[in-house]
Design a protein that fits this description.
With 334 residues, this protein is α/β, with parallel strands linked by helices. Helix content is 38%, strand content 14%. The chain has one domain: NADP-dependent oxidoreductase domain (TIM Barrel, Alpha-Beta Barrel). The strands form two sheets. The protein has an eight-stranded parallel β-barrel with strand order 3-4-5-6-7-8-9-10, surrounded by five helices. It has a two-stranded antiparallel ribbon with strand order 1-2. Helix 4 packs across helix 5.
């Protein structure tokens, strides 16, 4: 087999205390409490060597789940290309140790078939994703969203056929309103393709999954992967003293800028004070807060630097929240 082997994995990556794992729903599959997300900081605009440093640090510390989508970048597709290059040159020997995921459903290419949850979009997109990532299959393929147009039956049958084709071992669903999620899950179950996991946004500022999704996850014995635990940096303390020019919200076109109101900054300041009392950074506390829920299988982190990843990983060892701390957090967030 001809490929460059320039990376030697840490032999202690599965040692006790390195990474914690949680069972994913009804399956015997476990996922690391922290998964590495490629949404923003692994695209073609990023320095490849920095991406590789984060990937190797993650794997060396027991992170086995790598979360991608067809349009992650920027530009679209470039995060998968970055992963594919790193995989081919460094990680191919470790494929059986990895859970690689990708998704389709949002805008990807021009024309009427480049967006949405149609059978054509999902199957075509997965084929292209596999090429970009240098893979024969993904471990989890997600329908990235309910698009409001495509019949649930069409989208779910595409997922069934994708599993039966061998191009994905498991399927998952993401960003589905709960009234659409339940019939989607039931369609899959009726065809003996039990959805492994649901992926949704969940953090201190976005608590929607607590209303209905968590109950459905428990009922259907599915895992839950939470993305955006620090809400794209809003829960890191980064914006307590204004908007840094090199931050994501520093771009005048970024919608994040409009979210940074005086009211939000005051809430974050109070949360930051509580984190300091707990002896941790706000990012650590925010991530630990997500992990406090037993329904959460894994939290996706998308660090800009290795140092940010090191900080996030400490959340696994955060002290449990006391009743008083929970009360204070709820009071701040109301």
């Amino acid at each position: 087999m001809n490929y460059k082997k320039t990376y030697v994995a840490n032999p202690d990556r599965y040692a006790e205390g390195m990474m914690k794992y949680r069972q994913c729903g009804a399956s015997s599959i476990v996922l690391p409490e922290m998964s590495l997300g490629f949404w923003w900081n692994f695209g073609g605009v990023n320095v490849y060597e920095e991406s590789l440093a984060k990937m190797t640090y993650a794997f060396d510390h027991g992170i086995t789940c790598f979360d991608l989508a067809n349009n992650y970048g920027p530009p679209f597709g470039s995060a998968e290309e970055t992963f594919g290059r790193m995989y081919a040159d460094n990680f191919r020997a470790h494929r059986h140790e990895m859970i690689v995921t990708t998704k389709a459903g949002y805008e990807m290419w021009e024309g009427p078939y480049g967006c949405g949850s149609s059978r054509k979009m999902l199957i075509t997109s997965l084929n292209e994703s596999l090429q970009r990532m240098n893979l024969d299959y993904v471990d989890i393929f997600y329908s990235h969203r309910y698009d409001g147009v495509t019949p649930i039956e069409e989208t779910m049958q595409a997922l069934v056929d994708i599993v039966r084709s061998g191009k994905a071992i498991y399927v998952g669903l993401s960003n589905y309103p709960v009234d659409k999620l339940k019939p989607a899950v039931e369609y899959l179950e009726a065809r003996d393709v039990h959805p492994l996991i649901y992926q949704g946004k969940y953090n201190m500022l976005t608590r929607d999954p607590e209303v209905a999704h968590f109950d459905l996850m428990t009922e259907k014995r599915m895992g839950f992967t939470a993305f955006s635990p620090v809400n794209q940096g809003l829960l890191t303390g980064k914006y307590l003293n204004g908007i840094p020019t090199d931050s994501r919200a520093g771009s005048a076109s970024d919608r994040l800028k409009s979210l940074i109101t005086p009211e939000l900054v005051e809430k974050v300041r109070k949360l930051n004070d509580l984190a300091a009392q707990r002896g941790e950074s706000l990012a650590q506390m925010a991530t630990a807060w997500v992990l406090r829920r037993p329904e959460v299988t894994s939290v996706i982190i998308g660090p800009r630097t290795v140092e940010q990843m090191q900080d996030s990983l400490k959340a696994m060892n955060s002290a449990p929240f006391t009743d008083e701390e929970q009360r204070i957090i709820n009071e701040i967030l109301k």
